[in-house]
Design a protein that fits this description.
- By secondary structure, the chain is an alpha+beta fold.
- The protein has one domain.
- Helices cover 56% and strands 8% of the residues.
- Strands 1-2-4-3 form a four-stranded mixed β-sheet, sandwiched between helices.
- Helix 2 packs across helix 6 and helix 5 packs across helix 7.
């Protein structure tokens, strides 16, 4: 659940503004100069927003979640735990990982964080945190990786395809860290109140029955694998997830 899609959309707007400011007499946009600055700007702005608007997860504030972050960082080989925040979700089920400079952080929307708190499903939250820390462990939160994805987004479909591949990688890290929490991803299909009634394996099995051109197109245009393909990859660990 890396914030690549949102960053990419905002990045295009920022790049457009910078291009207009940097346009030379020839009228050719200086896009190669504007993208690095835009990526740096957006990463710094996103990090600042989490710090000043979110709730810092610490040893004394949400201590159980803090232990999850520390344990995930240790299990996945990070030299130190990333910063972690709970941010207002306004009904959205989401979490993301990013960074700025040498700092790395994860943020979990309050509606998703409730799975491990008020809705008493700590393993589901543990999987989510493992997924986000997995993005950091795989290098997805680095400046150069996000810069590369931003360049790839200039080619329709390429950036989103690379993003989907990263999501599978982060899922693999989360599964390594907390395989028992995998079924918590049902929340992506049914929301935080209904997901516990959903059959994970039924959704995974539909990857072989719900197919066709428009299913492939829906997946191709998304920064995350469609749920049926993603669940299938987690249910059958003998095969990699489908990117296309």
């Amino acid at each position: 659940m890396l914030l690549a899609g949102c960053v990419a959309v905002t990045l295009l707007a920022v790049v457009g503004a910078v291009n207009r400011a940097l346009e030379g007499e020839s009228g050719q946009p200086l896009i190669l100069l504007s993208i690095p600055a835009a990526v740096f700007f957006l990463r710094g702005l996103l990090y600042a927003k989490q710090r000043v608007n979110g709730v810092r997860i610490t040893e004394t504030q949400f201590p159980e979640a803090h232990r999850m972050v520390v344990e995930a960082a240790r299990a996945l080989g990070l030299p130190r735990p990333p910063d972690a925040y709970v941010v207002l979700g306004n009904g959205q089920i989401n979490a993301f990982a990013s960074g700025h400079g040498f700092r790395r952080y994860v943020a979990v929307n309050s509606d998703l964080f409730e799975l491990g708190d008020r809705l008493t499903d700590p393993e589901a939250l543990r999987f989510v945190i493992g997924h986000e820390v997995g993005h950091i462990a795989a290098g997805h939160a680095s400046y150069w990786r996000q810069f590369g994805i931003s360049i790839a987004n200039l080619i329709p479909g390429l950036g989103s395809t690379l993003s989907r591949a990263q999501e599978y990688t982060a899922d693999n890290h989360a599964y390594e860290f907390c395989p028992e929490g995998v079924k918590g991803l049902r929340v992506l299909a049914a929301g935080k109140y209904l997901y516990s009634y959903v059959d994970f394996d039924d959704i995974a099995a539909r990857a072989t029955t719900d197919q066709g051109l428009f299913v492939m197109l829906a997946n191709f245009l998304s920064t995350h694998p469609v749920n049926t393909w993603r669940f299938a990859a987690l249910a059958d660990r003998s095969r990699p997830g489908r990117v296309l």
